[in-house]
Amino acid sequence: MHLDAARKLWQPTPGWLNTASYGLPPTPAYDQLHTALTQWRHGSTDWQPWDDQVTRSRAAFATLIGAPTEDITVSSTASQIISQIATALPPDARILIPDIEFTSNVYPWAVAAHVDTAPPDRLADAITPRTTAVAFSLVQSATGQLAPLDDIIQAAHAHDTLVIADASQACGWLPVTTHGLDALACAAYKWLMCPRGAAFGYLSPRLRERMTPTAANWYSGTSMYGMPLTHHPDARAFDLSPAWFSYVGAAPTLDLLNQLDTDDIRRHNLAMANRFRTGLGQPPGDSAIVSLDTTHPDTPQRLQRAGVRMAVRAGRLRASFHLYTTELDVDLALEALT
Ligand SMILES: Cc1ncc(COP(=O)(O)O)c(C=O)c1O
């Protein structure tokens, strides 16, 4: 499907520049979720059709990142997926993370191992033979900085270090694959524009062999009652029992994204982000997230009056641009800021 045609399926109120906080649903997702809520209200269906959307979402996410469906786990949050990965670590494990990293990819490691930090652009150099795993965001959530992925993978493989990526700010606008990764965790409520409560993980077979399904439940197992303990033989062994409605909204959105070319989305997002940067006198960049100084004390009020919604992260304004962003959105923000 052509991106221009697809964009008609979104109905944002002008001024939404905050997809890095949460993404907006396309009409088919909103409609199907609405239908499911009506079914729920009247008890007019079994839960099976909702659960079918979990299966559909898992397959669609696998397609999106080019991984086998058997290697995809479904969860509710990125941090829950990362917590489960932490069970694969030996007792004396050392984890290397960027010194600026969203805590969903920090705290799960901190409770399980020793954590070392390095500046994001020096991460590859900081990997040593003692580094058990390197964990980082493909796109940093506050600054929008892209991780030097090839360098990290090369250094990690040289030291037999596990490579764990948080793709929550990347999947949906940046082409993402599992090449060179042992695991990937992705909260789907941002650039994948799914409801909060849907999250996906890629767990490589070699990593799964070392992992314990610490959140085992009726869905990750093969039986609903009693012993013995049985796990699904693939990455489903690490599933949480799914929040159905989140997946009712996720499946149509992911299927739609799979009909689009991610490079087209990236081009559109960067065109919008760079229109914004240029309007502020900054050089163009390579990220759909733009971070800027908020030195003027009445900036939040000016943005609010103009109807522009963006976030404040690490003491700076953060604007984010996705496939439904228009030039009007960008110009509204520029007018308020300049
Ligand atoms: C990089 C990154 N990872 C994960 C999350 C969300 O984590 P969780 O799904 O654990 O709430 C965010 C939210 O802002 C994020 O920016």
TrEMBL record:
Alphabetical keyword list: Aminotransferase, Transferase
Aminotransferase class V domain: residues covered: 52-285
Taxonomic lineage of the native organism: Bacteria, Bacillati, Actinomycetota, Actinomycetes, Streptosporangiales
GO molecular function, one term: transaminase activity
Protein name: Aminotransferase class V-fold PLP-dependent enzyme
SUPFAM superfamilies found in the cross-reference section: PLP-dependent transferases
PANTHER family from the UniProt entry: CYSTEINE DESULFURASE, PYRIDOXAL PHOSPHATE (PLP)-DEPENDENT ASPARTATE AMINOTRANSFERASE SUPERFAMILY
One Pfam family here: Aminotran_5
